[in-house]
Design brief:
Structural class of chain B: alpha/beta
Number of domains of chain B: 3
Radius of gyration of chain B: 24 Å
Helix content of chain A: over 70%
Number of strands of chain A: 0
Helix content of chain B: 25-40%
Radius of gyration of chain A: 21 Å
Number of helices of chain B: 18
Low-confidence stretches of chain A: 12-24
Distance between the termini of chain A: 49 Å
Low-confidence stretches of chain B: none
CATH topology of the largest domain in chain B: Rossmann fold
Oligomer: heterodimer
Strand content of chain B: 15-25%
Order of helices and strands of chain A: HH
Largest sheet of chain B: 7 strands, mixed
Shape of chain B: globular
CATH class of the largest domain in chain B: Alpha Beta
Chain lengths: 70, 466
């Protein structure tokens, strides 16, 4: 449990900084939410890629298995 | 619906891309010039056609002959009419869950077409012919590769947070959506959730860390350097996938309520129950209403007498478990004419939002052609101490016709309500009921239920509801 919090805290430290900016978006994404997405991008993107890859492996194996049964 | 003087819908003002307005009693949406390129893309990519074909987005007609005003207008469209507008705080767990999954499915489809949803408000979804449907045609915008999903915060506050609370803490916590019109604050969700939610990655990321991140950066703004950080499409898809998996796994917290076993514990004999069904059916045939509200619908047994005849029926009940069971049944049987909703008759949904006008109160939303008030009046009169006059007046503001059941004092169900209290209801009699209701309604038919002391009435409003 401590590792994610530590990693998060490090990221927060690295991203520290304050400048004014103009919001162009209709909806305020929320600074915290925006940053969380950036931080989590690598993890969620990676997990998704693995999931899609794994699904293709399973689909491939299923088609091979059903072919060999015929 | 509430209308400002110029015809604009009172609650439609936040989006510079367009607004809703009334003309000659019909609802239209003006699309402003600033949204033109996105709307055109929605059409040319085929995203609109695909979503409408699958019943995910409300269809609309483009109207060349309707003109609103202002140089900022690009097009006028007329969306298909929704039979009854409802709000997320009136939905059961599964209704909110299905609305969440619809929103995520729409976001995935949009990304495939090079577009994205710019907001994820639960108010963008309505229930139409038994299924959730997205109604905000102006929510789609061109996707910029590398940009994070702007609507992520709103999705977590409007959908994931409330669903998690309803799944892990208490089914009634969806009601917090009434207080927080932009979704439940994530720090509150985080505090209320049990510690075991820290063991699941999606809950930690989308709720707990999300809440901490919001709090930490609450008074800070993004630097230019941060804003240039890219979030690839794969990461956005991964985020959506993570949210979708998290939502799909949620189940409503099992809790038994006093109402869910109601029909197993009523005092009707088979004869009485059967006669009540036949009588209500006969009354419905006599009045042939266009739509029906069933107040205190429970699992929708009597609501379905109307909906199975093709009459659009809204089945209201105070118990979230009953509304949930009713919705799941409607979904499983693909029923198109019944809409189960949460409503406490003694404390109905008020007007909410800016000037209490953005979300309509229960009374302002529509009027019912007919109301079914079966096994309801004694709960109002006895359990809630509401006099007959106020009950009759309440119905008279809402419906043209009324099918109402009177349960006399010597019925065992009323005796149960009086078991632990003094009987302070000398006027709770059939004669008084009929006399008071006759001041607002004309009693067209009366039917004593066989093998029971209860009486069913068919009444007609003396005035049209305003």
């Amino acid at each position: 449990m401590r590792l994610p919090l530590f990693a998060f805290g490090t990221a927060v430290f690295l991203l520290w900084g304050v400048y004014a900016h103009n919001a162009h978006a209709y909806l305020d994404p929320g600074t915290g939410s925006y940053l969380l997405q950036i931080l989590a991008a690598f993890i969620v993107g990676g997990l998704f890629a693995v999931k899609m890859f794994w699904r293709r492996i399973i689909a491939f194996l299923k088609s091979r298995f059903s072919k060999s049964q015929q | 619906m509430n209308m400002a003087e110029n015809g604009k819908v009172s609650g439609s003002f936040r989006d510079p891309c367009g607004f809703l307005f009334f003309k000659d009693g019909l609802l239209y949406r003006q699309i402003n010039a600033v949204y033109r390129s996105h709307y055109d893309m929605l059409q040319t990519t085929g995203l609109y056609d695909g979503l409408v074909r699958e019943g995910m987005l409300i269809p609309h007609k483009e109207c060349d002959d309707v003109f609103f005003n202002g140089p900022e207008g690009y097009k006028i469209i007329q969306p298909e009419k929704i039979a009854f507008i409802s709000y997320p705080y009136e939905w059961s767990f599964s209704q909110l869950k299905d609305a969440a999954l619809l929103t995520l499915a729409l976001q995935k489809r949009s990304l495939n077409a090079g577009m994205t949803l710019k907001d994820c408000s639960a108010y963008n979804v309505q229930f139409h012919r038994g299924r959730p449907i997205f109604i905000d045609t102006l929510s789609f915008e061109a996707y910029e590769e590398g940009r994070p999903w702007i609507a992520y915060r709103q999705f977590c506050q409007h959908f994931l947070g409330p669903l998690l609370l309803m799944a892990r803490v208490d089914l009634r916590l969806g009601q917090l959506l009434r207080i927080y019109i932009d979704g439940i604050p994530l720090d509150m969700v985080s505090k209320l959730l049990p510690r075991s939610t820290w063991l699941r990655f999606s809950h930690v990321l989308h709720i707990h860390l999300h809440a901490k991140s919001q709090k930490h950066f609450a008074d800070k703004t993004l630097t230019a350097a941060v804003k240039q950080r890219r979030v690839g499409k794969l990461s956005v898809l991964g985020l959506i996938d993570s949210l979708e998996t998290a939502v799909k796994k949620l189940k409503p917290k099992g809790q038994s309520t006093e109402w869910e076993r109601y029909y197993g514990e009523t005092n009707y004999s088979e004869t009485a129950f059967s006669h009540k069904i036949h009588t209500v059916e006969r009354f419905l045939e006599v009045i042939n209403p266009r739509q029906v509200w069933d107040l205190g619908a429970n699992d929708g047994t009597f609501s379905r007498l109307a909906s199975s005849r093709g009459i659009h029926t809204v089945a209201f009940d105070v118990d979230p478990v009953c509304v949930e069971n009713n919705y799941l049944q409607a979904k499983q049987k693909q029923e198109k004419n019944i809409l189960p909703l949460l409503l406490d008759v003694v404390n109905p949904s008020p007007g909410m939002g800016w000037e209490n006008n953005e979300r309509e109160s229960f009374f302002n939303r529509a009027h019912a052609d007919a109301i079914l008030a079966l096994a309801l009046v004694h709960h109002l009169a006895i359990s809630n101490n509401v006099p007959f006059e106020k009950i009759a007046h309440f119905f008279s503001t809402l419906c043209a016709r009324l099918i109402v059941e009177f349960v006399p004092k010597d019925d065992s169900q009323v005796q149960r309500l009086l078991a632990t209290r003094s009987d302070i209801f000398p006027h709770y009699t059939r004669q008084s009921f009929e006399a008071v209701f006759s001041r607002f309604f004309t009693i067209r038919e009366t039917a004593q239920i066989e093998d029971s002391k209860r009486i069913l009435y068919l009444m007609e409003n003396n005035k049209r509801p305003l």
